[in-house]
Amino acid sequence: MLKKSMFALAATASVSLLVMSLPGCGGGGGGGGTAAGGGLPPNTATINEVYTIDNNTGTVYVFARTASGVTAPLRTINYGQPAGMAYDGIAVDRVNNEIFTVSEAGGTIYALSRTASGVVSPLRTISGAATTLNVPVLLTVDSVNNELVVANFGSANVLTFPRAASGNVAPIRTLSSPLFVRPEGVTVDTVNNELIVGDNSAAGILVFGRAASGAAAPIRQLTSAQNAVGVVVDYLNNEIIEGNQIGISVFSRTASGVASPLRTVATGGFDVALDNVNNEIWGSNLFNNTIDVYARTASGVPPLRTIAVSAPWGIGTY
């Protein structure tokens, strides 16, 4: 698997990270989730906390948004998760005050209280044969439509569950586009009612109607965004931001085909997140073991600050 071969170049453990905005609403990328709580556009609220998940242990770490360098978390969360099961994604649902984590190897989604601390029990889990979870990677919460959407890497599809689903339940929709090769990132654009999938292959970024299912054709495909992992929509500036393992690129939101990026923010980003209040882009830099924070309009310049983490993978704003 390409994703794991890339991991091997850097480290054996990875951390998924999500930036949480309180109060108001936020937006998300591949691992963070998009939700326009209260009917307001995503990624337009004050960001206060950063959530990360250790890929090897599944421990959730919560940092202050302005954390920099090597710093202690505000709190940690453990929830009886078995170690060594490749925990890739994390998403925060501000509307319902919950956190979702996903185990790639275990094929399990965990729902936790957002304010949990220490050792707790999960509120609920989604797992079992009926779920068809097969190497799930990144996930997103759509709090407007009360849904949870997962990039299901192992079966090359995207699964949608009710947000409050629990147990061995079937997805309410399965999107199995024949264009999918290695879908890893997913976000829901609740403003334009679109589902955006980052495919870690020449397929690039594929955009569907939000409720697309089966072998539905994409509305548009951005093949110049090759090896896309994390994706996030900037509603205020009508842009889409992509992390592609070797960098962070920014495109027009409606770009398609072989359109060139508007700018290249950095050379080391897997997943991406957006903070429109502070005008920043966040990128997970697996090779440098850092979360890098850039000015939103940056192009080819050093980050404003970094947070030291162990092989970070997913990242998102909410």
The class by helix and strand makeup works out as mainly beta
Span between N and C termini?
A: 29 Å
**CATH architect. name:** 6 Propeller
CATH homologous superfamily label: TolB, C-terminal domain
Low-confidence runs: 1-15, 21-40
The CATH C-level name is Mainly Beta
The number of helical runs is 1
C-alpha geometry: globular
The CATH topology annotation reads as Neuraminidase
Description:
With 318 residues, the protein is mostly beta strands. The chain has one domain (2-308): TolB, C-terminal domain (Neuraminidase), CATH 2.120.10. The protein has one helix and 25 strands. The protein has one helix at residues 2-10; strands at 15-21, 47-54, 60-64, 75-78, 87-93, 98-103, 108-113, 118-119, 124-126, 136-142, 147-152, 157-162, 173-175, 183-189, 194-199, 204-209, 220-222, 230-234, 239-243, 248-252, 263-266, 272-275, 280-285, 290-295, 305-308. The protein has a five-stranded mixed β-sheet, with no helix packed on it. The longest helix has 9 residues, at 2-10. The protein starts with a helix and ends in a 10-residue tail after the last strand. The relative contact order is 0.19. The model is unreliable at 1-15 and 21-40 (pLDDT under 50).
